[in-house]
Amino acid sequence: MAEELDPGFERLPSGTLRVRIRLKGLTAQESFPLHKDTPAVRKDQMAAARLWAAKTRSAINAGSYIDNSALRDLTVEDILKAFSTHGLTHSKESNARKDRNRVNLVLKDRIASMKVLAVHTGGLNAYANELIARRYEKDEQEPARTTLYNQIGVITRAMNFARETYPTMPKVALPKLPPPSPGRDRRLMEGELEAILEISRKKEPVLTHAVLFAIETALRKDRVLGFKEVYARSIGCGNRVIRFPKGKKSEKTVGIIPVTHELHALMEDAKRDLGGNNQVDRLFDISLGRFDKMWQETLELAGIKDLHFHDLRHEATSRLFESGLTMAEVMSITGHSTTEMVQRYSHYNAVVVLEKQNRRSNLLAITDEISKMIDLFLRSGGDRSVVDKMLDSMTMPMAA
Predict the structure, then answer these.
(1) How many Å apart are CA 102 and CA 106, to the nearest integer?
(2) Is residue 333 part of a domain?
(3) Quick one: CA dihedral 316, 320, 321, 323, positive or negative?
(4) Where are the beta strands (DSSP E) in the chain?
(5) What is the sign, positive or negative, of the torsion defined by CA atoms of 8, 11, 13, 16?
(6) Model pTM?
(7) Residue 170: inside a domain
(8) Any idea what the CATH number is for the domain that residue 243 is in?
(9) Which of 19, 170, 288, 369 is deepest in the core (most CB within 10 A)?
């Protein structure tokens, strides 16, 4: 017996139910696949099709119907490629490069083949869980929240960009992501710096000088590679500080870095070994890509694990605290905008403070002990002039 279908309903050979609504000059169409051919599943399929048809007719009559036919075959891959090609033209080149790398990562995953009309927050949440599970399997640790946010966020940003062409593109919120990590506080371990310098001196001297420069200045990698000697400006009396020219608002703040005797010597050594004598040229004339490759190869040869070049900034900041500088003084050099951003180094600062307090406590204890001994000496009939001579002999070298 032939199946009786509602007007506009069509049963395809695959079992899919196709519904086409024509009303007030508009045409709307939707397909409802048959996942399992049983009476119960067919009943549910028909109910879903009739519900969609009723809502669509109501929306057309009310003038609120949105035609998504242009989006029907559009995939996540389509909008990501369009975003990568046309949506990053006004971005800073380094940011655009990072976004294109994120796009390429997503294009390798199954989500790239998903229809954009099927993208929803739950689907992005499942994708986030997949990325977390994949990282656990590889490194036995959870990916950083920022990494997840960037890789998933590039999908929602691509959808926002596509909305300029397809106004009916659905809006999808980012899923709830794991809490942010406390931040890296990796420092150089014993022998690591020596190993890096020994290898780089033989293979790539530019890396040797860049590493030493980073530790002395606490600059980020992009600033190290972008440094020009003309940025070292005189402040009078033969003193100089490094001040980078004011950049875009999107660029991270750089502090004012005193050119110490050590830093001056490092710059002179770099100019001598790298052949850079022009103050307006970059001191480290090397591309970011080649530098990163050089860094990774050096770490592999040295057998060093889990060390980022940015960790040298952590090392430098910690050394500033250990030299006795205050939080404000360190921030003026590193360019950190809030005290919260340097709290990860506070335990190094606390060590310095503790050592100072211990020295003070020890001095007070010694002084107290000397006072008790002098008092006991005098009470036992000791000569006061002997005590005075002893105290004079103790204070004279200090005065000198």
Answers:
(1) 6
(2) yes
(3) positive
(4) 9-11, 17-23, 26-32, 232-236, 239-242, 257-258
(5) positive
(6) 0.53
(7) no
(8) 1.10.443.10
(9) 19
